[in-house]
Fold this protein.
Amino acid sequence: MTARLFNRDALLPGMGISRMTPSWVSRAIVLRTQGFNVLRAGTGLSHDAKLILDGNKWVVGDMLMGKPGQLTPLEDWEDEMRRGRARVVVYRPIGVSEQKMAASANYWKENFAGKAKYDSKAIRHLLFFYATAELLKIRLGDESRVYCTESCKAADVSGGGYDPYRKPNGWEKINPTPGTTRKRIVGPWRTFEIVREALTWEGAKYEIQTQNVRKRVVR
């Protein structure tokens, strides 16, 4: 029997889960939003998603390129990890109740799964116009579509009533990215904390060690 990589007993609906893959798109996202040092160290994040308990089955609320929002079985993430196609980190918002986290997970499920379309335009804009858009406070991409981190933020804000992606001054982060997520884990402005026990002993081999590099990343 194949050993599980996630400790289901330690998971809560609404926890965040992020990954990094060897693909050029993942590497480009990390390079653009977190910098060369993070990319070289292998401590970056390129995709954000949300853990959801669908009945009695754990799934991941995923916005993937070319697809509508989907509920990916957690076992599929484990398969990708075993094949060397993904490393992951699981985290939760600091100071947020389990009830609010569950409300965020439910919002994602009800509003994005099978309904929302992936915003590929935002990813193209991210790679080329991110700094300008942040300076001018312009939302990237297509208003009718969403990308991965954007869907997580929307679920947290509209479903759970909290915003872990906000800036240190309390202002809204208009274009949150996996780089924003990493920044909120590593600090100095920390709104997420890693849940180490979410991974089994076997699964810990695939954990992204985000804390190893503390170089400046885009907020």
